[in-house]
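Sequence in, structure out. First:
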Amino acid sequence: QVQLVESGGGSVQAGGSLSLSCAASEYTSNFRCMGWFRQAPENQRERVAVIDRNGKITYADSVKGRFTISKDNAKSTLYLQMNSLKPEDTAMYYCAADRTLFNCAVGPGGYVYWGQGIQVTVSS
């Protein structure tokens, strides 16, 4: 059973930074796709940033230039560095992974494995 455990969330003022980590129970290279999704209250879950096995990255337009996704295969960990945070970034953030996707930039329904989520709150 794959386990994904997020850490690093919290509260920050607008303009600040937070870093999220997602520790996987197996090598991240085992997954074709890994990524970060978020869901704000009363909103649908949306894709934030995804990275494929070869390192190809796709960002949501709303976070381009502010967020950076990366992974460390040796540590089996996925990261999300979030800078210049805005109140609209407030959401529950989820780590996700999949072994079989060919296109990582799909909606959340395409991903099989999920973390429990971690809250990020940005105050104005």
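Second:
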Amino acid sequence: QVQLVESGGGLVQAGGSLRLSCAASGRTDSKNAMAWFRQAPGEERVFVASISWSSASTGYADSVKGRFIISRDNAKNTVHLQMNSLKPEDTAVYYCAARSVPFIARTLASYNYWGQGTQVTVSS
């Protein structure tokens, strides 16, 4: 089992930045690929970004490409999402996810473990 706890959400003005963090505990010895998803009110949870266990591969949704950066520190069992040039449409609950293989994926069903989420609100 892997437990995930997100932090770093909050309220920010459009054009601003936030850095989300996800701390993993439990079976962190396995080589997990990690990802961020988000869910806006009344909408489905969607893929944002993913990173392989080695950090060699990353993937981004088109809506965030060039603005968001995903990174990880395996020594600290943490994953980060640096969010720049934020827009009101980025407002959502952001979820950290882990899967039991080291390769990235973009679908919800590919991920075994989920955090509780952190709220990000971008005001116009």
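Remark: The chain has a mean pLDDT of 96.
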